Structures are given as C-alpha cells and as structure tokens.
Amino acid sequence: MATQTSTSLRFALVLTLVGGYLDAYTFITRDGVFANTQTANVILGGIDLAEAQWRATLAHLYPILAFLAGIGVAMLVKTGRIERRVTRPLRWATGLQAVILVIVGFLPAGVHAAAVTVPIAFVAALQMGLYRTIGDLTYMSIATTGNLMRLTEAWFRGFVDHDPVARRHTAVYAAICAAFAGGAIFGALVAQWIGGRAAWVPALILAVTLVLFYLDDQD
Questions:
Q1: Is pLDDT larger for residue 52 or for residue 6?
Q2: pLDDT over threshold 50, residue 12
Q3: Which CATH architecture fits 8-207?
C-alpha cells in the first residue's frame, strides 16, 4: 500500500510552507500580529502591555486564545469522541483551513486583525494537534525553532557520530526548515504585492493537498 499523504514528507512540507507563509502574511497585512507563531505574539503582546497599548495587546492575545482552543479540540478528536462522527478529521481540518483562507482574502484591510488571525490560529493549532510526525520523527509546521534544534542534533549524530540514520533525518529536517523559510519569503512577497488577497494562495495549495489525499486513496 502506498504511503498515505498524511504521514508523508510531502504533506509535512506543504503544511510547513503554508505555516511560514501565513505568519508573514498576517504580520504584513494585519498590523504586525502573527497567526501561528504564538511565541512572537506573547513577546509583542507583552511589550504592548508594558507600554499600556491595550488594543494592540488584545490583538496579540486573541490568536493565542484561539490557538489554545484549537489544541483542545485536537485533543478531543484524539480521544475518539468526535472521530466516531467525523472520519478523517485531518482532512476536514485542511479543507476548513482552505475555506477560511478564501474568506479571509475577501476581508477589507481595515478589519480588526482578530477577524483574520483568530480563525487561522484555531485551524492551524487543530491541524498541528492532529499531525506533527513524519514517520517516527516529530516536527512543527507553524514554527521553526524546534525544527532547527532537531536539525542540528541530527546533523551532529549523523556527521560527528557517523550515524547513517541520523544523516537521513538531517535531510528531512533541513527540508522542513527550508520550507518554512521559503514560505515566509513567498508570503511576504505576495502580501506586499496583492495585500489581503494573498490568503488565496495558501488556500489553493491546501486544496491541492486534498486532491493528493483523494489520489492516495485510489492506490
């Protein structure tokens, strides 16, 4: 049986590219607020709070709360309570994210940042909670610090300790880190070019992954 897309490197690369893209997109188009990178939201929100910038503080707080809610729903799905009614929840999450991004692309520039960052953060967290492994390797599609650490550790084991398996892991993590960086660059360029409508690009990318799901099922 062919390897399912949901457990393959190609799907991980797509999600990671989209993760980098969306944070660059929301930062540029939504007043410096991140949708997925909650570490940055905590730091920037803390700075705004220290400066008594209440509205800006809340703009960073909302996606953090949405992210927590998304992880909570993912944990609920993993218990099997929802999966009895909704089969293949990761596919539903991917489809939902694509739909949300299409809607986001129509929102005017003056809308509150939370209208964009909250739904993106929720679905990204749901997706990450459901899927963050490539075989037996763990990774994160919406941040790069942990992936960089794993890349360095794998490189050390592979090329200093001469572990051939770790060398293959090095290539995987290098691809993941490159996808995130590439997504951020791509997202920044497209957001500067067409503004809010840049959300439609990752929506299309995610729609393609759903096609890959279908094709895998036909094998």
A1: 52
A2: yes
A3: Up-down Bundle (1.20)
Higher pLDDT: 130 or 85? It is 130
Which pTM was predicted? Answer: 0.90
The 3-state DSSP class for residue 152 equals helix
In the predicted structure, residue 35 carries a pLDDT above the cut 70:
yes
Residue 98: what residue type? A
Domain positions in the chain are 8-207
Is pLDDT of 7 > 80?
no
Nearest to 35 by CA among 187, 211, 201: 187
Question: Does residue 211 or residue 117 have the better pLDDT?
Answer: 117
Distances (CA, A) of 52 to 41, 92, 95, 210: 16, 40, 39, 44
Contacts of 148 (CB under 8 A, 6+ apart): 177
Please give the Cα distance from 1 to 212 (Å, whole number). Answer: 15
Q: Torsion angle, CA of 162/165/168/169, rounded to 10 degrees?
A: -100
Residue 52 Ramachandran class (φ > 0 left, ψ -120 to 50 alpha, else beta): left
**Cα–Cα nearest to 42, from 66, 64, 68:** 64
DSSP for residue 85: T
